[in-house]
Amino acid sequence: MTTRLRITCSILSLLVLSGCALNTTRAPERVVRVKALADPKLRERNPRWGEEVKELLRATSDYFEREFGIRLVAALVAPWPQRERIASTALLLARLEREVPLRDSSGSYDLVIAFTAEPVNIYSDGKARVDRIGNCRQGLGNYMVSAVSNLFRYQGPHAEPTADVVAVIHELGHIFGAEHSADTNSIMHKNFDYRTEFDRISRQTIFKNKFCPFAK
User: Fold this and answer.
1) Do residues 172 and 145 lie in contact, with contact meaning Cβ atoms separated by under 8 Å?
2) Quick check: 112 and 175 in contact, CB under 8 A?
3) Residue 118's Cα: distance from chain center in Å?
4) pTM recorded for the entire structure
5) Higher model confidence: residue 117 or residue 7?
6) What is the pLDDT of residue 35?
7) What is the DSSP string of 99-161?
8) What is the separation of C-alpha 104 from the centre of its chain, rounded to a whole number of angstroms?
9) 43: Cβ–Cβ under 8 A, 6 or more apart, which residues?
10) Under DSSP, is residue 212 helix (H, G, I), strand (E, B) or coil?
11) How big is the chain by its Cα radius of gyration, in Å?
């Protein structure tokens, strides 16, 4: 009798646990529509530049989706500027804001990212750039420039981020409101290199701004 009772209780417990598992829902996901652009130097360096840009975004999205429930979608990948090479990321960002709309014949976008393969100097005007540190009052930033120093190939969703992917992750942190951190182990430290983790305050900021609207 005791054995039968234990078996019955075990079966009921499994059923209850199964029901709980079925009712478990993932945290709401934020989808960010990206217009991704490749500068002339990147296109010259790699004939498969379109795939390279998509794979950079995919690797970045893997990280942000895993850590924050934020997915990046490459809604459009295109060449820009068409011919002129712009070595300064500051000038590239200014021109990006001036010439590239958030809506075109192909649709509308939350974020425009220009990837450059120019040999920029990170200690002068070659740092990656965003147009605004994100906040809900003004809206999240819409424009971003990120340098790509090496040819990139996607290695799967759990691959260690390369330096170029970490650079995109760092700038997206700014887009969602994270500022530079004094924590030398944080991706949001100004010299992020191969760091792969956000500090506690930056993580809290990104979660807080996760569903903020992008600027108009």
Assistant:
1) no
2) no
3) 21
4) 0.84
5) 117
6) 97
7) H--SEETTEE-SEEEEEE-S---TTTT-S-EES----TTT-B--EEEEE--S------TTSPP
8) 22
9) 49, 79
10) coil
11) 21
